[in-house]
Amino acid sequence: MIRSELVQRLCELNPELKTAEVEAITDCFFETIVEQLAAGGRVELRGFGAFSVRSREARIGRNPRTGEAVPVPAKQVVHFKAGKEIRQRLNAS
Prior knowledge:
By secondary structure, the protein is α+β, with helices and mostly antiparallel strands. Helix content is 41%, strand content 29%. It is built from 3 helices and 5 strands. The chain has helices spanning 3-13, 19-38, 84-90; strands at 43-45, 49-56, 59-62, 69-72, 75-82. The strands form 2 sheets. It has a 3-stranded antiparallel sheet. A hairpin with a 6-residue loop joins β3 (59-62) and β4. The longest helix is centred in the first third of the chain and has 20 residues, at 19-38. It is elongated, with a radius of gyration of 19 Å.
């Protein structure tokens, strides 16, 4: 599902809201998550999962075409841990 499909689905579920309003809410939701993560925080959505930031150290990688060693700088990456409810739904027998 892409963002526009999410907005469309939310519009279908909430016909009293205009598309522009749903887009504004969706933008605010995602922007708030990004701001919290950028500040080094954690975002937990009960029943869905938790987003956090992890550090990756600098390392030496390889160019797949040439095999040449390439330095890869240290960076911050987003980590997602699925919540209990979503794990149970995905693994239901």
